[in-house]
Amino acid sequence: MNVKVLLFCLLPAAPVLAQGFAGLGTDAEGFAVPERGRALQFPRDHGAHPDYRIEWWYLTATLQDADGRDYGAQWTLFRSALAPGESEGWDSPQVWMGHAGLTTPDTHFSAERFARGGIGQADVAAAPFAARIDDWHMTSTAPDGADAYSALQIAARDADFGYDLRLEANGPLVLHGQDGYSVKSAAGQASYYYSQPFYSVTGTLDLPGGPVAVTGQGWLDREWSSQPLASDQTGWDWFSIVLEDGHRLMGFQLRGRQTFTAGTWITPQGQATALPDGALSFTPQGTAQVAGRDIPVRWQIDWPEQGLSLQTAPVNPQSWMDLTVSYWEGPIRVTGSHDGRGYLEMTGY
Amino acid sequence: MSLLALKDIHKSFASAEGPVAVLQGVSLAVQAGEVVALTGESGSGKSTLLHIAAGLEPVDAGQVLFGTQDMAALPDAGRAQLRRGTVGLVFQQFNLVPSLSVGANLAFQARLAGKHDAAFCTDLAARLGLADLLSRYPEQLSGGQQQRVAIGRALAARPEVLLADEPTGNLDEATGDAVFALMLELARAQGTGLLLVTHSARLAGQCDHAIHLRNGRLA
Amino acid sequence: MTLQALLSHWARNKMQLAMLLAGLTLATALWSGVQALNAQARGAYATAAALVSTDGAARLESPSGQLPQALFVELRRAGVLVSPVAEGRFIMGDTRVTLLGIEPLTAPPGTAAALADGDLQGFLSGGGYAHPETVAQIGASDMALTPSQAVPVGTVLVDIGTAQTALGMADQISHLMLTGPAPDAMPEGLRMAQADAGAELDGLTDSFHLNLTAFGALAFAVGLFIVHSAVGLAFEQRRGLFRTLRSLGVPLRSLTLALALELALMALIAGLAGLGLGYVMAAALLPDVAATLRGLYGAPVPGSLQFSPVWALAGLAMAFAGAGLAGGQALWRLWHMPVLAPAQPRAWAIASGRAMRWQVVGALALGALAFVLGVFGSGLFAGFALLAAALLAAALLTPAALALCLRMAARLARAPVVQWFWADSRQNLPRLSLALMALMLALAANIGVGTMVASFRATFIGWLDQRLVAEMTVTPRDAAQARELEAFLTSRVDAVLPLRRVDATLAGQPGAVYAMRDHATFRDNWPLIQAAADSWDRLAGEQGALINEQLARRAGLWPGDRVALPGAGDVAILGVYPDYGNPLAQAIVTEDWFDRLYPDTPTRQLAIRTDDPDATRAALLDEFGLTAQAITDQAQAKALSLAIFERTFLITGALNVLTLSVAALALFATLVTLSGLRLVQLAPLWAMGLTVRQLAGLELARALVLAGLTMVLALPVGLMLAQVLLAVINVQAFGWRLPLQIFPADWARLAFWAGLAMLAASAWPAWRLWRGGGEPLLRVFAYER
Ligand SMILES: Nc1ncnc2c1ncn2[C@@H]1O[C@H](COP(=O)(O)OP(=O)(O)O)[C@@H](O)[C@H]1O
Ligand SMILES: [Mg+2]
Fold first, then answer.
1. Where does the signal peptide begin and end (chain A) (predicted)?
2. B91: contact with C, CB 8 A cutoff
3. Cβ density class C262-297: b for 16+ within 10 Å, e for less
4. Is the pLDDT of residue C55 over 70?
5. Which CATH architecture group holds B4-218?
6. Which residues have a Cβ under 8 Å from the Cβ of B11 and sit 6 or more positions away?
7. Shortest alpha-carbon distance between residue B2 and chain C (Å)
8. Which ipTM did the prediction report?
C-alpha cells in the first residue's frame, strides 16, 4: 500500500474524499470543532485553519474554447492535520495534498502533489491571499480593499497537461447552511462551508495538442472541519450548477444508512437559501464503467417545491481522478426545467 | 634333519556352507637337493599347501619347520625374512613386479636377499631364453615369457627351498621340458630343495619322488 | 533392465559410488554456494538502490557536500520534482549505522515500499525502520525501531526531520533525489549524479564477486576431477559387462542411453545434495562475506541467507553440466567400443605415454596463451583468463613433471626396494594424475592467494603505521562544533589537522578532493609511491595535487601528468600515494587552496597530534563536553582497519581450505578405488619377503612423496599466481599494486597441511592393507588354479 494513502486515509484526519472513510466519524481529539453561530470573518477565514483536522480550497471551472468545445478544470488544495496547530520545520503536523484535473470531451487528466507543512513547500496565506503547493498556486489578484477571492489566478502543471486561469467574481461570497455552518448528517456533524460561485474565467489550457484559449465560469468552495461525516456515511454526490438564468444551485447527498441531502439555492444577486435535508432528491439515471466500477454518471435532480427538475450528463463520463486518493470529478451539462452547466464530484464508489 | 618339513597340517576355509576342510593332516619333508613333485586334482589343495609352506598362509593345526625353525614361532618380520632369503616362490600368475623391467625383476629377489650375482643372473637369463628381453616390462611379455622370468627370479636368489606352483603350466611342451630341466639341474647343483606342483605325470616321474594329494591327505 | 545391470556395479563398489557422488556434490556445493553469496549480495545492492532512487534516477548534489534545505523548497516551487535526503553515520545503541533521513511524501515509490507496513505516524514523530539484523545489532536505543526487510543492513530509515536533529544538520540536506524529469537548467551549485547507489556498488564490488566466482569455478573444476576419475574407472571396470550386454543383443543406443541415464540420476542426487550443502556453506560464509563487503565498500549486505529457486535451478544445471563433462568421455568411448572389445580392465590410464604427451602439448599451448594474455591482455577478465590458463597449464604439466622427477629419483636409487618404490610410483602416476592435478591446483591456489594476502597484509600494516600518525581523531557534530573544537584544541595540542573533502568526479571516476594542511605530520609520514621533485613544497605552493594510487592506475596518471579538479581546471600531479581499502579516486590539495576552491565545506574530522593523548581526551570529554563516541584514538583506528582487512580475506581463507579439502578427497577417492589394483601389484613383493607393515608404510611414503613433489611444483606456480594477483588482478579490481613478498613459513605450514591431507587420503587404504595382514594379498594368489 502506498505511503501517501496511508497518510491520507488511515490517519484519523483523512479527507472526506478517501474511500471507506474509516475512522472519520471519531471524535475530534484536541481539534477545534465547528460551532453553530460563530460568524465567519474575512479575509481571516480565507486562510488556513490549522486547528481543524481538514480543510480545502476547491476550485472547479466549466470552460469552452472558441469552437464551443466543452472543458473542465479543477484545482484543489487539501490540508490534513496529524495534530492541531502549526509549527515550523519538519515537526509541523500539517500535511498538504494538491489535486489538479483537466477534462476534455475525450480525455481526462489528473495529477497530485504532496507536501509537509512547516517548511514552505506548501502553505496558504490569508492576506495577501495565496495557496501554494510546489509550483501550483491559487493567488489573489484582487485590488486592495476588495475581497481577496474577487479576483484569482490559478495554475497547475504536470508532465502532460497544465492550465493557467484568471477568475473575476461577479457576485458576493455565499455562505452555506446557517451563515456558513453546514450540517453534514442527521446526527449533527457539520463543517464550515462557503463559496464564491460567480467567477467568469479566461485562460489557457496546455494540452498535448498545444495551448487552447478558453473562457467559462468558475466556482470556489471553501470548507473546513474536524468531524465531517457520520460513521455510516460511505460517500457522496456533490453538484455545483450554474443555470442559464443566472441562478446557482449547490446540492449534495451523503450516502449512508439514511441518505442525507442538503443544498443552497443562490439568486443571480447572491441571495442564498439553504435547502434542508430531504428538500432535494438525487436519482441515478445511467451508469458508466469507469476504472473498473459502475458509476452513476447521469442524474436526475428534483426540487419539487420550486418545480426544479434537472437532468445532468457528463462532458466526459471517464472523468476519473486516478490518483492516490481516487474519485470521479468532472464538468456536466444540465437540461430539464432549466439549462446550465456545472461540476459533479462523486466519491465512495 | 630336513630342509623343510610340514607336520600334520590342517587347514580349512570358511565358505557359505560352513568350513571346508582342504588339508586334513598332511605331512611331508623336503631335503637339501631333493626334488619333490606334488600332484593332485584341481582344487585338491596343492596351492594352499605351497602357500602354507612359504609362510604366506597360516595353518589351523600342524607345524611348518625350516630346519629347526618353527614358522609359527616367528613374528611377521621373521617370516618375511625367511621368504626373502630362504624360500623361492614361483606362482602360476601375478608374480612379476609390473613396474620393473625384466632385468630388474630377475635380479630383484636376489638383491633383496643380498645374494645378487650379476654373472649368474646373466647366465640364468640366457639359459631361460630371456637375454633379449631384459629391458622389456612384464606387460610386454607373453604368458610363457613371464613364467620364465618368474622362475629365473626365484632361481637367481638361490633360495634354500624353491616352491613352484605349476611353473611350466603356461609353457609349450619343449620349453617346459627345458625349463624343468634347468630347475632340476640348478636345484641339484646348489643343494636347493624343490617342491613342485605339476599336472604332468611325465615330469613328476623325473623327480626324486612324487606325492599325491587327495581328499586333504597324501595318498 | 539394462540400467539395472549397470547399476548393480555400484552395489558392489559402494566406495566408488560414494566418491562419485561426493565429488559431484562438493563441486556443486562449492559452485552454488559461491553463487548464493553473490546473488545475496547483489540482491542487497538492489534493495539499497531501490530505497534511495527510482529506477536509476539521478540525484542532485553539491560538490561540497551539504545543501541548504531552502534549495529543496525553491526547486519544488519551481516545479522540479525532487525529494530531500539527509544522511550520515550515527552511533545507535551498540553500533554505528547510516541514518538515512527521507521525506516520505515526496520520496520515490521504492522508499514508500520500505515503510509499507508500519506505524507511519510513529515514523513521522521520530521512529525508524531498519533491517531485522540491524535492529538486533543496535540493541537498546531511544528510537522506536520497526524491523523491515526492505531497508538495507546497517541503515536506519527515519524521517528527514529526525535525521537532521540526530545528525546536527538543521536545515541542511545531503542531496536531492530527482523523482521527475530533470530541470532544464541546473541550479547554481548543484550537479547531477547519474549513477544510483546500487549501480555504484555493483561497479565497485564486481571485482570482489568475480573473485568469488573464480574461486567457485576453481573448486568446481577440482570437484570434476574426482567425478571424472570415478566415472572413468567405473567405465573401465564395466567393460566386460558392456561386452556381455552387447553380445546378448542390447543395442548400443540403449546401452549408451542407459549409461547417460545413470549419469543423470547421479547428477540429480548429487546436485540436490550439493545444493543443500552449498546452501549451508553459503549461510556459514555469508556473515564474513557481508562483513567484507560492508567493510571494504560500505555495501549493505545482510548476514542471513535467503533461498532463491533460480539459484537452485542454476546449481542443478551446473551439476548436470559437470556430470556431462566428466562422463562425456566415457559415453563417447562406449559409443565407439567394438562389440568384442577386450574385457580385461586394461588399466585405464595406461595408454598414458600418449596421454601425457598430449597433456604436455596442451600445457604448452595454454602456457603460450597465458603469456600472450600477460603481455598484451588488459582488464580484470584478461587477468582471470591468464590465471585460468596458467593454472590449467601447470595442472596439465604436473604428471609429466612428476614422472620426470620420479625417473631421476629411480636413477639415483641403489637399494632394490627403493628402486621399485620410484619405478612403481611412476608407473602408477597416470592413475593418480587427475587427483594430483587437483592437488596441484589447490596447492598453487593456496600458495598464490596466501602469498598475495600475506604480501598485502605486510604492506598494509606498514602503510597503516605511516598513515595513522595522528594520536586521535575527533568527529564533530557539525561545522559549528568543528570550528569550536579547532579553537579549543589549538592551544592544547601540538597540531589540529582538519579533514575536509568534497565529492568530485576525477578523470571520470567517482571520488573526492581532500584538503591537507601543510604540516610536518604529512611531510614526514605520508607515504608516496611516486613523487615529483619537491612535491611537498610544490603542494604547499598550490602548484598541484597528490592523487591516490587507485586513480593513478585506473586513469594512467602519474607525476608529470595533469588531472582536472572541479573548479580548479587541470592541475599538475605532484605525487601518488597508496590508499588501501578505499575503492574511490582521491586527490589532495593544500588546505588554503581547497578553502578557496570549495568555500564553506564542513570539516568532517579533526586529526590531533599530541604528546599526551590521555590529557587531551580528558579535556575533550570533561571541558569541551564531547561524547566519547566522537573520539577515535590511534590504536582503535588501527584495530578497526586491521579487523576489516582480516575479514576481507577470511572468505578467501575459507575457500582455500575447502579447495584443498576437495583435492584431498579427490586423492582419497582415487587411492581407494585403486587399492584393489594395488593389491595385485604388491602381492609379489609380499611373497618375496616384504612385510605388510613395510608395504603399508611404503604406500604412505609414496603418497607423502607425491604430495611433497606436487608441493614443490606448486611453489613456482603459486608464486606466479600471487604475482598475477598482486600485479594484475588487484590493480584491476582494487586499483593498487603491491610488492610480492615471500613467506616460507606459510609454505611450510601449507606443506604440512598438504602432507596431512595426503596422509589422510592414503591412510585408509594403507591401514586396510596393514590390518588385513597377508589375507588380501594372498587372495590375489588364491585366484590362480
Ligand atoms: N582364501 C581362500 N578362501 C576360501 N577358499 C579357498 C581359499 N584358497 C583356496 N580355497 C579353496 O581351497 C580349495 C583348494 O584350493 P587350491 O589350494 O587353490 O587348489 P589347487 O591348487 O590344488 O587347485 C579350493 O576348493 C579352493 O576353492
Ligand atoms: Mg593351484
1. 1-18
2. yes
3. bbbebbeebbbbbbbbbbebbbebbbbbbbbbbbbb
4. no
5. 3-Layer(aba) Sandwich (3.40)
6. B21, B22, B23, B45, B48, B52, B57, B59, B60
7. 22
8. 0.91
Q: Give the tens place of pLDDT for each residue, C600-651.
A: 787 878 888 888 888 888 888 888 877 776 787 777 777 777 776 776 666 6
pLDDT for A24: 38
Q: Cβ separation of C73 and A89 shorter than 8 Å?
A: no
Question: How many whole angstroms separate alpha carbon B12 and alpha carbon B48?
Answer: 10
Using a threshold of 3 CB pairs under 8 A, tell whether chains A and B touch: no
| B131, B125 Cβ separation under 8 angstroms | yes
Residue nearest to atom 4 of ligand 1 (CA): B13
How many beta-carbon pairs under 8 angstroms link B with C?
Answer: 90
Which among C73, C103, C111 is the nearest to A120, CB-wise? C73
Each residue's pLDDT tens digit, A322-348: 988 889 999 999 999 999 999 999 988
φ, ψ for residue B175, nearest 5 deg: -65, -45
Residue C580 pLDDT grade (very low, low, confident, very high; cuts 50, 70, 90): confident
pLDDT in tens, C717-742: 889 888 888 888 777 777 778 888 88
| B56 interfaces chain C, CB cutoff of 8 Å | yes
As given in the structure block, the three cell numbers for residue A309 are: 427538475
Local confidence band at C113 (pLDDT 50, 70, 90 cut-offs): low
Beta strands in C451-506 (DSSP E): 472-474, 495-506
Residues of B with Cβ-Cβ distance to C680 under 8 angstroms: 94
Mean per-residue pLDDT over chain C, rounded:
80
Q: What is the 3-state secondary structure (H, E, C) of chain A?
A: CCHHHHHHHHCCCCCCCCCCCCCCCCCCCCCCCCCCCCCCCCCHHHCCCCCCCEEEEEEEEEEEECCCCEEEEEEEEEEEECCCCCCCHHHCCEEEEEEEEEECCCCEEEEEEEEECCCCCEEEECCCCEEEECCEEEEECCCCCCCHHHEEEEEEECCCCEEEEEEEECCCCEECCECCEEECCCCCCEEEEEEEEEEEEEEEEEECCEEEEEEEEEEEEEEEECCCCCCCCCEEEEEEEEECCCCEEEEEEEECCCCEEEEEEECCCCCEEEECCCCCEEEEEEEEEECCEEEEEEEEEEEHHHCEEEEEEECCCCCEECCCCCEEEEEEEEEECCCEEEEEEECCC
pTM: 0.65
In chain A, where are the structural domains located?
A: 49-346
Q: Provide, as residue numbers in chain A, all residues whose Cβ is less than 8 Å from the Cβ of C124.
A: 82
The reply to whether residue B99 touches residue C688, judged by beta carbons under 8 angstroms, is no
Give CATH for domain A49-346.
2.40.370.10
Report pLDDT digits (tens) over A79-106: 988 888 888 899 898 989 999 999 999 9
**Residue ranges in chain B modelled with pLDDT below 50:** none
Q: Whose CA is nearest to atom 16 of ligand 1?
A: B45
Neighbours of chain B (3+ CB pairs under 8 A): C
